[in-house]
Write a sequence for this structure.
């Protein structure tokens, strides 16, 4: 049990589909993140939410739409994706405002766009 | 923007031996944090060790230790008495005060294989 749970673990979707990735943290943290992990590339920060407010959007295409309804849940809504969007999507959480805070990661969703 | 460089895409070590993974970074900040994360085949990112830049003493966690050279902007990870379970991808990561919250900048990773 990692404290950060992502569902589904695997997802295959067509380019015209709409799907959502879910992340839930049970650690009482107030910040949540989406990262994209592609082969041969560093993990890329996509979105940051602090206290449910989005504070960073790293030039992510609009076909990725995040949602943070509360500090424990984070979604990534996907629509009209491209094959190059196939990757491992990792969610993380941390506690802000009290100095250093370790980031805890979920196990990721392996996304394949066909 | 901070960049993190891991120059060793793959490394191999025999069980019980010692291996060192290299990491360099680029920043203009004075206060920041550095991390090594491990990602086994299960894909779970696990924090191995962390270092606060204001601390001169190198961090140590059991068989894992770092060699932090602030002036050289170098942050290598030493794994002693390597075990088969250490086989994984290892990522060096930087977190600075200019980042949004505690978001991390990662290197490309080093794939470590521990052989019997």
């Amino acid at each position: 049990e990692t404290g950060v749970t992502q569902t589904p673990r695997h997802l295959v979707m067509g380019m015209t589909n709409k799907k959502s990735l879910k992340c839930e943290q049970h650690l009482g943290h107030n910040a949540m993140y989406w990262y994209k992990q592609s082969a041969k590339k560093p993990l890329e920060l996509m979105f940051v939410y602090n206290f449910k407010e989005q504070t960073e959007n790293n030039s992510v295409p609009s076909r990725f739409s995040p949602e943070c309804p509360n500090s424990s849940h984070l979604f990534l809504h996907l629509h009209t994706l491209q094959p190059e969007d196939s990757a491992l999507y990792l969610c993380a959480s941390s506690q802000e405002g009290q100095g250093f805070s370790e980031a805890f990661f979920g196990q990721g969703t392996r996304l394949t766009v066909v | 923007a901070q960049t993190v460089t891991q120059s060793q895409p793959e490394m191999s070590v025999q069980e019980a031996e010692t291996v060192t993974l290299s990491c360099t970074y680029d920043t203009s900040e004075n206060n920041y944090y550095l991390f090594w994360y491990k990602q086994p085949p299960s894909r779970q990112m696990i924090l191995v060790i962390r270092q606060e830049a204001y601390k001169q003493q190198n961090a140590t966690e059991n068989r894992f230790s770092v060699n932090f050279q602030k002036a050289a902007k170098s942050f290598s990870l030493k794994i002693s008495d390597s075990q088969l379970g250490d086989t994984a991808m290892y990522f060096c990561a930087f977190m600075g005060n200019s980042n949004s919250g505690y978001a991390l900048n990662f290197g490309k990773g080093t794939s470590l294989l521990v052989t019997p």
